[in-house]
């Protein structure tokens, strides 16, 4: 039986984080797995954002994992820090993002290199809907992958945890192509599970010391949860995150897909969770994304229920530009898979007719100028 560890971690104090990280790594017997192996460290680096915004994996988490690995005899040359955020894949952008997220300093302090190349490989898969992925080369070349995710909500997938973090192995604007190929959240979730089954992370550690609630993964609000979650099975970890968020796993597309494939049970078996188990409960008052509302069809009379698909499309949450906040950086237009965002008088404009509501623009906006507009009756 896969076990999931939850460890109380009050803040990002260096010693506090180190003690928690060493505890979960020892419990998971990571030392035995990494002996004589090359280790890839895959943090969440959505974009160039400071740790204080709780959008990316805190650098103290990354530093603590490396410190433990160094103590266990894994040399810096056998480790690599690698991720590919949104936008165009380039050496310059990668370096800027690593620096902004605080990962460059971790690299300098520990001697563990950063992956800044734009080399990719194609990997065949027996996935349900994707038979081949193009991923950053290290994800296919290293022996052990330690997935360092962030505890966050997500406008499209409900939550962003262990499985969603692996989308960072898809290079640059290739991410937009996947949004275009799979515009519905159900098919997008199938793709994410296919990707997770292809990457097969060895271990996952989720930074929930300060997570994000509301309209994540970048437009939400930091929330001090004071915990770290770790395990080998990424689906069990995401299931646990759903419980803490108060999100029904069957309403989270990735979890629903994993459960239907038999990769995770609807309810985690008794004894699965170890550590500070009192933290494994619904966090009262946790705010989910605006895009996750009550099912509209449940509230309609049977006589007009035939109209719900069209009505739901009409009233579904959608991205809206706050012109007063927009700085005209064009990052939203660059990432938009449908290319329906243009610049008008130096401000972004979204053509709602072609919008597939993937919320990539909302995700990549550096100043939170793209909001999630929700139908007034569901506010």
Plain-language structure description:
It is a single chain. This protein has 379 residues and is an alpha/beta fold. It contains 14 helices and 14 strands. It has helices at 14-27, 30-34, 59-71, 91-101, 103-110, 138-141, 162-165, 174-181, 185-199, 234-245, 253-260, 308-315, 331-335, 360-364, and strands spanning 4-8, 39-43, 79-81, 120-124, 132-136, 144-154, 158-160, 203-213, 221-231, 273-275, 318-321, 341-344, 347-350, 370-373. The strands form 4 sheets. Strands 1, 2, 3, 6, 7, 8, 9 and 10 form an 8-stranded mixed sheet that branches. The protein has a two-stranded antiparallel ribbon with strand order 4-5. A two-stranded antiparallel sheet has the order 11-14. A hairpin with a 3-residue loop joins strand 6 (144-154) and strand 7. Helix 3 (59-71) packs parallel to helix 5 and helix 9 (185-199) crosses helix 11 (253-260).
- Spans of at least 5 consecutive residues whose pLDDT stays below 50 are 294-308
Label the overall shape.
Answer: globular
> Hey, roughly how much beta strand do the residues contain?
15-25%
Largest sheet: 8 strands, mixed
Find the structural class using helix and strand composition. Answer: alpha/beta
Helix % is 25-40%
Mean pLDDT metric: 91
Number of helices: 14
Q: Summarize the helix and strand pattern as letters.
A: EHHEHEHHEEHEEHHHEEHHEHEHEEHE
Q: Span from first to last CA?
A: 41 Å
Radius of gyration over C-alpha positions, nearest whole angstrom: 20 Å
Give me the count of strands.
14
